[in-house]
Write a structure and sequence with these properties.
The protein is of the alpha+beta class and 545 residues long. Helices cover 48% and strands 8% of the residues. The strands form two sheets. It has a four-stranded antiparallel sheet. Strands 1-3-2 form a three-stranded antiparallel sheet.
Length: 545
């Protein structure tokens, strides 16, 4: 895009600041500009000497669209989209869809907390079973049973905690009950199925949004694909303007009180107050299902089936965390991680199998993951290889959702499955000797309803309903184990161990953080000594928040 006459004059030698004006750094916040207009204004720093105020004063939405069509789509200057940040509210989506949605390294947001909110009131997602009424009925009955036991577990555990933990005199009764209820929710959340509705807010840049939408549109679950469409429409369509209603009320009030003043408020000014804003109509408009991801997933799944299909998954009992340090070439690591992403086997087991393959076969798997990559596609996440610390973690889905927030790590998350069984929070998790579900008299019911949910999920998965395999996953409770590989450096390992082992946290990820620390301590005792970890095996104050 050529510079305007005005811009040329601004960049001339005559415009250099006088000596008295030099060394005067200016910093100011910018508010109220449309995301794409602001992205254009920031991008102009590399192409113009205009100040931000001058750029924003002359840029229109139309000019921003022309600029982005040229430099973003034609020339591939995708870093421009990093400058446009958009806030979204995503409400009444399933826990399954929420986990898929937030699986981005460049992501900021918050989701409804299972600790502080009663999810009994949130409702749940119901897949389309078409004419398969038997699967639909089984699905509905199973979800209702899980929620019923969730409600009874919350009440029973809270009663036990009242008997175990007295209220200190300085603590107000309402605060005491609120803390105990949160601890009870920590236990009861294991029963929430992935169909449970949640809500979240996210603030992402337009580049992340574009790749996020494409990834969602490529997902096998109908709800997730529909979510991708809705995100794209929300970015391109009118945004909810928090100030529009107040501005309209001001204009109407002014007209009622002072007609002359209202008439002085020109139509142009009134339009500015109440105008329609579209967050990213240009940057996300071409987001489509990602053929690279779709084709690669299909071929990798086939390769994993051929290589691992007849090999049973070997997971040592009671192993939550396996620190698999580099003992292979980078090619073997990438090939192993590609296969890990589409299987349910432990990373160590896959790595050992791949290490025995001929070099040509290893390179073939590595190349397979890039075969369908288009010009602007980022390489798949398994290619982010070379981290010194690789933690293969097997834990309940509920606890994984908390660790999933650690963005300064490369996370390879396997698909949901009932193959790994489920967790039971009944082994001293709230402190030594606290067999909480047994003491509450609800352990048998807890185990029975989760095993029934797993059985119902398996039954629906083999039915003739469209997308049956995906629909069946919604019945898996948060107690169900999931496997994920976290590739991190020492600083991130230190941060996770310190933050997630703290006494106020949920016992699920506290235990995992402690196991991560122990694994580091065995391999790197001098470094582990620098970590200010909280010993998971020691008693805690349940009223500490």
């Amino acid at each position: 895009m050529p510079y305007s006459v005005r811009e040329t004059s601004v960049m001339s030698s005559k415009t250099f600041p006088a000596p008295s004006a030099r060394n005067q750094t200016e910093v100011y916040a910018v508010h109220g500009a449309d995301p794409e207009v602001l992205a254009y204004a920031m991008a102009k720093y590399s192409r113009s000497a205009l100040s931000m105020r001058e750029s924003l004063a002359e840029i229109s939405s139309q000019r921003a669209e022309q600029f982005l069509n040229t430099f973003y789509f034609q020339y591939g200057h995708r870093s421009i989209a990093d400058l446009a940040h958009i806030a979204f509210a995503v409400e009444r989506l399933s826990l399954l869809a929420a986990i898929v949605l937030v699986d981005e390294q460049r992501w900021d947001g918050q989701e409804r907390s299972t600790r502080y909110q009663n999810f009994l009131k949130s409702g749940w997602y119901f897949p389309d079973f078409g004419p398969d009424s038997a699967s639909a009925r089984l699905f509905s009955e199973t979800v209702e049973d899980l929620f019923a036991v969730y409600q009874r577990t919350t009440a029973a555990v809270q009663d036990v905690l009242r008997q175990r933990v007295g209220r200190p005199e300085p603590l107000k009764p309402e605060a005491y009950e609120r803390i105990l209820r949160a601890r009870a929710f920590d236990v009861a959340r294991y029963l929430l199925p992935l169909a449970t509705n949640t809500s979240l807010g996210q603030i992402v840049n337009a580049r992340t949004l574009e790749t996020q939408v494409a990834r969602l549109l490529s997902h096998p679950a109908a709800e997730v694909r529909d979510l991708g469409l809705k995100l794209r429409e929300a970015a391109a369509g009118p945004a909810w303007n928090v100030n529009a209603q107040a501005a309209q009320a001001f204009v109407e009030k002014l007209a009622a009180v002072d007609a002359e003043a209202a008439s002085a408020l020109t139509a142009e000014a009134a339009q500015l107050l109440t105008r329609e804003v579209r967050a990213a109509p240009t940057l996300v408009k071409y987001a489509q299902p990602n053929d690279y991801e779709l084709e690669t997933r299909r071929e990798l799944t086939q390769a994993a089936t051929e290589l691992l299909g007849k090999t049973p998954s070997r997971t040592p009992p009671h192993v939550l965390v396996d620190l698999v340090e580099p003992a292979e070439t980078l090619e073997v690591e990438i090939a192993s991680t590609l296969l890990y992403s589409v299987s349910h086997h432990p990373y160590r087991q896959i790595r050992d199998i791949v290490s025995q393959l001929p070099e040509a076969r290893v390179n073939e798997i590595v190349q397979l993951g890039l075969r369908h990559r288009a010009r602007h596609d980022e390489a798949l996440r398994p290619y982010r290889a070379g981290s010194a610390l690789r933690f293969d973690i097997l834990m309940d889905i509920g606890g994984f959702r908390d660790l999933h927030r650690h963005r300064r790590s490369v996370q390879i998350v396997q698909n949901f499955t009932a193959l790994h069984g489920y967790e039971t929070p009944d082994s001293g998790d709230l402190g030594p000797g606290v067999e909480i579900l047994a003491e509450a008299g609800i352990l048998t019911e807890y185990q029975s309803v989760i095993e029934a949910a797993h059985a119902a999920s398996a039954q629906i998965a083999v039915s003739q309903a469209p997308e049956a395999a995906q629909s069946a996953l919604y019945l898996l409770p948060l107690a169900t184990r999931i496997r994920a590989l976290f590739k991190i450096d020492f600083a991130e390992a230190q941060y996770i161990c310190e933050l997630r082992s703290a006494a106020a946290g949920h016992f699920s990820y506290r235990r995992v953080a402690w196991e991560m620390f122990l694994a580091l301590q065995r391999r790197h005792p001098a470094l582990a000594a620098l970590i200010r970890v909280t010993d998971f095996t020691l008693p805690i104050d349940l009223l500490q928040r």
